[in-house]
Amino acid sequence: MVELLDLIPGLPEEIALDCLTRLHSTTHPLATRVCKTWQHLFHSTRFYLHRKRTGHTHKVACFVQALPLNSASDAVDVKPVGSSSYGVTMFDPLSQTWDRIDPVPKYPNGLPLFCRLSSSRGKLVVMGGWDPTSYSSVNDVFVYDFTTQSWRQGKDMPENRSFFAAGELNGLVIVAGGHDDCKNALNTAWAYDVGKDEWSELPRMSQERDECESLVIGSEFWVVSGYKTESQGHFEGSAESYKVGSGEWTRVEDAWSPRSCVGVAKLGKLFGWLKSDSDSEPGIRVVTCSIQLGDSTSVTGSNYQGGPQELYLVEGQTGKCDRLNVPDEFMQFIQSGCCVEI
């Protein structure tokens, strides 16, 4: 860690460090302005890991969400003008607060369509998608630092791909599957080290997996379902898992029910969030996004395909559902999301 001398004048180093570790993440941008020592400390990966190890981080949900559309008139019943554009919305389950992260400088009017979100040691990572103007695929990577409340552009993805799986494993961002610019499904995978700003190639999966889902179970990154190039739209129930350093993927047959948003229950068992018509929570019969937030899961869904969305917090992934009161300005469609521990 950085030199700890005189973190707080008059206090022993360990006590001073303990005091700063307890500061809430929302105070970090201001704390970095106190002095250069604090600035280096709060920006360091080791300080983040220290906060995490001592239980002073907390998990938030970041969503790719449609932005409110501008209207041609304030008159009642006038339809909005223009197509949907998307931004990043943050929900803090502890404080029950909502916020919208500043736009990516390269895309001030909206994120690339169908981009993927992941996280790495308290930072948010936005990858890929389609240019919102030309609809061509992009391999851009952007990293948001909650300490500085700013974006930086990372090293481009090595391959153009869309509708791929993405997630964090041991501080690395893993991407796998999806399809290329010619709609060919992919079985390739890469790992992105955010701190070093480097990509490294991983072993190939056993098969191509377009429109696959991802999740992390313990020390394993899972790529679930998807379909091959010649099987357009015919999702299958198999999955593959990868453990960093293992050098191979492990294939699992009949891992889940295709076309339902994937979740993980006790003992690492996969399940689908698709609810039956008799379920007591009609708002999540069709689930579009689920994000594990420690002991609970944020679940976004609707009563029917294309219907208005509701957002719930579910205890223990499959337990009690609590419907959230969402402010009007954050009621737009949620496409996808991820957990960030800040």
TrEMBL record:
CDD domains: F-box_AtAFR-like. It holds the Pfam family Kelch_KLHDC2_KLHL20_DRC7. GO terms for biological process: negative regulation of cytokinin-activated signaling pathway; regulation of phenylpropanoid metabolic process. SMART domains: Kelch. Residues 9-49 form the F-box domain. PANTHER family: F-BOX DOMAIN-CONTAINING PROTEIN, OS02G0208700 PROTEIN. This is F-box domain-containing protein.
